[in-house]
From TrEMBL:
Residues 643-777 form the Cation/H(+) antiporter C-terminal domain. This is Cation/H(+) antiporter 14 isoform X1. It is found in: Membrane. It comes from Solanum pennellii (Tomato). Residues 808-832 are annotated as: Disordered. InterPro entries: Cation/H_exchanger_TM, CHX17_2nd, CHX17_C, CPA2_transporter, Na+/solute_symporter_sf. Keywords: Ion transport, Membrane, Potassium, Potassium transport, Transmembrane, Transmembrane helix, Transport. Its main location: membrane. Residues 495-627 form the Cation/H(+) antiporter central domain. The gene is LOC107021903. It comes from the Eukaryota.
Length: 832
């Protein structure tokens, strides 16, 4: 018989706060060295045991998340629930399971590893924080953040004073109730932004208010914590201990700001904007994070506080911040962090709640904190002109708790500051309230509600001599030449001016807060560290175009840094605020020189589909195959740039034709209108579209403008006409949707990209080499036109130059007011 070996002996001894478990670990029981072949138990050794624990925790967490994700719950909730399932409230009630998977000696190693993982996770959260946002927060956001802290703190403090007179409160509970009221007043910035990102409302109006308010709330929490630490140290030891604590913390912050921060910024400057950071740089910053954790722990603070402070001084976003997040986040968050909450769940026993004393008072303070948070946010938001319909979800957002609060609860329990029963109440209440609130927010608040149902003037219904407002969207610098030249062929003139709104779109990487700011007229203003140099390059290209057409074109620039999932919200927000007539968005595929697809961006396709569905104006998708990117033909007129408008009928074709009419008169383009008709149609003039009639009456000549009717019998004939355009066209313009007829019967059965329509989808295949612009006039479900400008709620919550909504496109030729009100012409003129 082979004697079963164990790696440690354990017993209980009296600790500093309570009776604690003492574990004696054998030094030679680390690696099993293949003991399974000799009949041994690998779970008796430290390394195999911790590996098995991490695997087990990972799978339980992922299964839990898969079950609760349809209810709009977060990964943090899944990790906490998994910890409860694995602990004494779940599987831990079985002694054989506990002895095998989570023996006392196995918990120590796992807890140490999980704490290191949590430190680096908090470091990543710090990297994603942009402290300069506090400078951009307006007065209203500051007051909402302060009131969301003061109201729950006041109610909690009142409860701490009143409860001992109403019920029995033991001394231990009475001691930590004030601390509890402070913690429940928190709305931590990483928690709120993570919630907003999960619910896809990070860049919404309410999302931006909540982001700023939570950042202000964090400042209140940190100031209160330092004050409370000083008072506690002075009362328990001596008055000088509190002063020394503040002095050492201040010294630590000074070293971080004036010594470590310049070093980190120097490292960031050495990394190319689109390059990768060196491994030596990564290791240097990782060691600095460990050092900051060590110093914070030595000063009596949680080690995660030190790593968070270091993360804040690391420049967020690319190239350094996003690289650090990419290298650390997946491993620490996905594998090590769940172990942190699994360990906390091992000691949580929800069945012991009924046996604790003073639990009613603890729960009263907890609930009053949530109530105060909701009321404080709701009242202040309504006072600052946030509608009640939006203020309710905003207040619910600020009530949500997450990973930072859970870690505080665990830390307080481990240090004996709160009892196990109070810890269980805090954790269970957080899970229940946050679990209820998250789907409520998703149900109550839809950011697209702000612009759905609103409609700016389409090009067709716009006075031909009034200003045309065009919004162009840039995903990368390769989009710039084609969009610049498309605006150039749109023929800006003093009689038909064009206002251009350039929206530079970037994916949110290495940062927690979405950004939408104007980047024009920023001379003398501080440059936002979140904006890379490409913003200036893009702005310069369109400014040169506007300067070349001075007096007939002006350009304003905006930069949006958001997740792809909600990028369409910023596009539609700018379109509404600026009264845009048409939004031009690049196609998600890019072509190589040989005519094949060189790059494919599914995320951009998702954005385009959302814009087509929700945009408050006309939308054009530009498929560029290189003709538009070559500006010599358009600028210098070595040969005419050939544009063909393919007309089949319907509102989208009318809108496309109206845009073509704007291009007429450009000295270096030729325009050809091809009307596809069925052979059985009545071709009398009375049956012609009013757009066709106007085009024929005013623009057809023997020179650069031509018109032709193609009579076909079926989809085969339509395909033949399309193929005939190959050698006589540089840019084809077509509507997205058409009247259903035999001309297109069968074509839509092979459609690959529905966002282009069936004709556009056919022209976007590799069989054709010309560029394509597909135009949609009215998104589905949008029926009416607004005549009032929409003022964004969040504009008053940004200070200084970042009120992106207050920049108008008015110039000496503009017919729009400085308030952003756009043209109210509707249904008159040759296009009406």
């Amino acid at each position: 018989m082979v004697r079963r070996k164990v790696s440690a002996w354990a017993g209980f001894v009296q600790g500093s706060h309570r009776e604690e478990l003492l574990i004696c670990q054998f030094s030679d029981m680390t690696n099993s060295k293949g003991c399974i072949w000799s009949g041994g138990n690998p779970f008796a050794f430290s390394l195999p045991l911790v590996l098995a624990q991490l695997i087990f925790i990972f799978f339980v967490t992922r299964i839990t998340f898969a079950l609760i994700q349809p209810l709009k719950q977060s990964m943090v909730s899944a990790q906490l629930i998994a910890g409860i399932i694995l602990g004494r409230s779940g599987f831990g009630r079985f002694d054989a399971y506990s002895a095998l998977i989570f023996p006392p000696e196995g918990r120590m190693v796992l807890q140490t590893i999980s704490d290191v993982g949590f430190m680096f996770h908090v470091f990543v959260l710090g990297v994603q924080v942009d402290p300069t946002m506090l400078r951009r927060a307006g007065r209203n956001a500051v007051l909402i953040g302060v009131s969301s802290f003061l109201m729950p703190f006041a109610l909690g403090g009142l409860a701490c004073y009143v409860l001992p007179h109403l019920t029995v409160i033991d001394d231990a509970t009475a001691h930590f109730l004030p601390l509890l009221s402070i913690i429940n007043s928190a709305s931590f910035f990483p928690v709120i932004t993570s919630l907003l990102s999960d619910l896809k409302i990070l860049n919404s109006e309410i999302g931006r208010i909540a982001t700023l308010a939570s950042l202000v709330n964090d400042g209140c929490i940190y100031a209160s914590s330092i004050l409370l630490t000083t008072i506690d140290a002075s009362s328990n030891y001596s008055k000088w201990n509190g002063v020394l604590a503040i002095a050492w913390i201040g010294t630590f912050l000074i070293v971080i700001v004036f010594a470590v921060r310049p070093l980190v910024k120097h490292i960031a400057r050495t990394i190319p904007e689109k390059g990768a950071m060196k491994e030596s740089h990564f290791l240097m910053i990782a060691v600095l994070a460990l050092l900051c954790g060590f110093v914070a722990q030595s000063l009596g603070q949680p080690p995660a506080v030190g790593t968070f402070i270091l993360g804040v001084v690391v420049p967020e976003g690319p190239p350094l911040g996003s690289s650090m997040v990419y290298k650390i986040d997946s491993f620490c968050t996905g594998l090590l962090l769940p172990a942190k909450f699994a360990i906390s769940g091992l000691t949580l026993d929800i069945f012991s709640l009924g046996r604790g004393k003073s639990l009613l008072g603890v729960e009263a303070v907890i609930l009053l904190g949530y109530l105060g948070k909701f009321a404080g946010t709701l009242v202040s938001a309504v006072h600052f002109a946030v509608s009640f319909q939006d203020a309710v979800p905003l207040a619910l957002i600020m009530c949500c708790k997450g990973i930072i609060e859970a870690s505080f609860y665990i830390s307080l329990k481990d240090t004996g500051a709160i009892t196990s029963e109070a810890y269980a109440l805090l954790l269970i209440t957080m899970l229940v309230i946050t679990g209820i609130v998250r789907p409520l927010i998703w149900y109550l608040y839809d950011p697209s509600r702000r612009y759905l149902g609103y409609r700016t003037n389409s090009i067709q219904h716009l006075d031909p001599t009034s200003e045309l407002r065009v919004q162009v969207c840039i995903h990368n610098e390769d989009n710039v030449p084609s969009l610049v030249n498309l605006l150039d062929v749109s023929n800006p003139s003093r009689r038909r001016p064009i206002a251009v709104f350039v929206l530079n779109l970037m994916e949110l990487k290495g940062s927690a807060a979405a950004l939408l700011v104007p980047t024009h007229n920023r001379k003398g203003k501080p440059k936002l560290k979140s904006l890379p140099s490409r913003s200036e390059h893009i702005s310069n290209a369109f400014n040169i175009l506007a300067h070349r057409n001075q007096g007939s074109m002006m350009a304003q620039h905006f930069t949006s840094i958001v997740p792809y999932a909600t990028m369409h919200d910023d596009i539609c927000t700018v379109a509404v605020d600026k009264g845009v007539n048409i939004v031009i968005i690049p196609f998600h595929k890019q072509w190589a020189i040989d005519g094949t697809v060189g790059a494919n961006f599914p995320a951009i396709r998702m954005v385009n589909q959302q814009v087509l569905h929700k945009a408050p104006c006309s939308v054009g998708i530009l498929v560029d195959r290189g003709q538009l990117a070559d500006n010599t033909q358009i600028l210098f007129g070595h040969s005419l740039f050939r544009i063909t408008m393919l007309y089949l009928g319907g509102p989208d074709d009318d809108e496309a034709l109206a845009y073509c009419c704007r291009m007429l008169g450009h000295p270096h383009i030729s325009m050809s209108l091809v009307w596809l008709k069925h052979s059985s149609d009545n071709i009398e003039k009375s049956m012609e579209s009013h757009m066709i009639q106007w085009f024929k009456a005013n623009n057809v000549d023997a020179g650069r403008v031509s018109y032709q009717e193609e009579v076909v019998n079926d989809a085969v004939g339509t395909t033949q006409v399309l193929r005939s355009l190959e050698d006589s066209c540089d840019l084809c313009i077509v509507g997205r949707d058409h009247k259903q007829s035999e001309l297109t019967l069968g074509i839509n059965e092979w459609i690959e990209c529905p966002e282009l329509g069936f004709i556009g989808d056919m022209l976007a295949t590799s069989d054709y080499s010309f560029s394509l612009l597909v135009v949609q006039q009215t998104p589905p479900g949008t029926e009416f036109i607004t005549t009032q400008p929409l003022q964004p709620v969040a504009s008053s919550f940004y200070s200084g130059s970042d009120k992106y909504s207050q920049h108008s496109a008015s110039g000496k030729y503009s017919q729009h007011s400085a308030s952003g009100k756009y043209s109210q012409h509707s249904g008159y003129g040759p296009f009406g």
